[in-house]
Fold this sequence. Notes:
Blueprint: E1 2-9, H1 15-24, E2 28-34, E3 39-46, H2 49-60, E4 67-75, H3 89-93
Antiparallel strand pairs: 1-3, 1-4, 2-3
Amino acid sequence: MNLSGILIITTASQIDALIETLNAMPDVEVHHIDRDNNKLIVVQEAQTIRNEVDGLKKIKKLPGIVLAEMVYHYFAEDESLAPESLDDLDEYTGMRPSAVPAYLND
C-alpha cells in the first residue's frame, strides 16, 4: 500500500467544487482545508507506485487546480512494490533518467 500526502492550491471560487470532486474520487480524501489560503491537503491511497503517480497526474488535471504536488510519500515495505533501483524510477514516474540528480545514482 502506498500513501501520498498531496498539497493542492486552488482559487476561492473553485475550492468547494474541487473538494467535492476530490472526495468523490476512489482512494482520495481531503484531509485538511485552509480556506484563508485556498490550500488543501489530500491523502491518496494506491496499491502501486505507478497507481500513485497516475492518481497525482489525474488530480493535477482537475478544474480549479493551481498547483498539486506530492509532499509526502509512504510505501509499504513489500519489496515487490518498490522499484529495484533508481534506474527504474523513470518507468514509475515518467521522469527522464537525466532528471535524477547524479548524486542519487551513486
